[in-house]
Amino acid sequence: MAARTGQSPSALSNAAKGRQLPPLDVALSYAEACHGDRTEWERRWRAAKAEQDTAPAPAPGRRWPIVVGVGTATLALVAAAAVLASRLAHEPPPSGGPDHSPRFFADDDAFNQRHPRPHLSSDSAQMAADLLALGRVELYTGKAAPPIHRATASTPTYEVTPRKHIGPWGPNPFEGVGVPWDASWKAPSPDRQWTVVLTPDGRSVECWRTEVRDGRPSCEWGAVSDTRGSSVSLKGQATGSGLSRLAGVITRADWKAGRIDHALSFGTPDNNGRYVFPAVGSDGQEQGRWREGQFIWLDRAYNIDADTSLRPYERMVAKSLQEYGAFNVKNAGRFSFTSEYGSKPPGTNGDGYASLTHIKFAQYLRVGTIAPAS
Fold it and tell me: Is there a contact between 271 and 331 (Cβ–Cβ < 8 Å)?
């Protein structure tokens, strides 16, 4: 259970004993491991916490009333622990692969590593202010997000020549790589510029402005990446930074797990044409301070669990930014993060753009760089 939730065995054991209200993150991990609704259990936890905070202090030797007072949360966790223990004893480990793992790319990729000692830029405060001056921070989700299709061995595969593979666009990135396309997949609308197809062998075929005619797909341009290796694209270019379009995307599996266990990605219109690790290029043409590949994070002084204004999905995003940070991968009209098409972050209706305005970016956002692993 510890492996599934990311919580320590001692924290889970203490929560199951029912002697006191467990920390919120432990309680929510427990609830989700038992297939409970995260939003509902957060509501129950906060109700129990309020009851505990207003309860009179117990007389010496009479601790049981406290347990009764917070029993809604703790006793349910005890019962859930017994159910889960029985279930896990008969369940196989979760299967791997792009369709089941919240992560893309190798464990040592920059997006899957914590960076506890980033280099803080000397003008971090001004850079953060410039980023936030773009307007409200949003999360692309639901129908506003890019589709990610997962092909199987039986999915028809087509030879595709991008419609703009000549001249300054460079050679065909799909040469020698079949592009899978299932007839049941809907062609994206013109305003959704990118479509990603994950192949059975772990490659990511990233198609810009997909068109489907007579059941055959075509792309205006694109890239091919390897989800088993680095987030840097093998061929072509899907972002100005040269990183895969999948780098930093929040998947349906992330939302279901209640935890984003990787870094995020974002864009800014202020990129100046230079780049830093992990970017390998830049399409920026401005004169601002920002470089593609630049790293942002939320300062550890931010007590996210104590911030009661955060909605469930905002809390998940904030924790990811505090633990893993985010990388600037492209030019963009606004400061935003992206989740998978059709995903429904907890606490939203999942139909478009979700605001992140409750996260205290103005106070805790930091800007810097990271160095490649030695």
Answer: yes
Any alpha helices (H) in the chain, and if so which ranges?
2-5, 9-17, 24-33, 38-54, 64-69, 71-90, 124-132, 252-257, 312-323, 361-364
17-27: b (≥16 Cβ within 10 Å) or e: ebeebbebbbb
* Crossing angle between the packed helical segments 312-323 and 38-54, to the nearest 10 degrees: 90
- The answer to whether the CB of 197 falls within 8 A of the CB of 149 is yes
H or E, element range at 213: strand 211-213
Judge if pTM exceeds 0.85: no
Paired with 203 in beta bridges are: 226
Least Cα distance to 367 among 137, 127, 130 occurs for: 127
Query: What 3-state class would DSSP assign to 176?
Result: coil
Q: Which two tokens stand for residue 98?
A: 């792009």
Residues constituting the chain: 374
Q: Which of 18, 25, 26, 22 is nearest to 71 (CA)?
A: 18
The phi, psi pair for 25, rounded to 5°, reads -65, -35
Q: Measuring CA to CA, how many Å separate 15 from each of 22, 202, 345, 374?
A: 5, 39, 26, 39
Three-state SS sequence of 346-360? CCCCCCCEEECCCCC
Please check whether residue 305 is in contact with residue 215, taking contact to mean a CB–CB distance below 8 angstroms: no
pLDDT bin (cut points 50, 70, 90) of residue 219 is very high
Report, as an integer, the average pLDDT of 165-187: 88
The burial class, CB within 10 Å (0-12 / 13-18 / 19+), for 212 is: middle
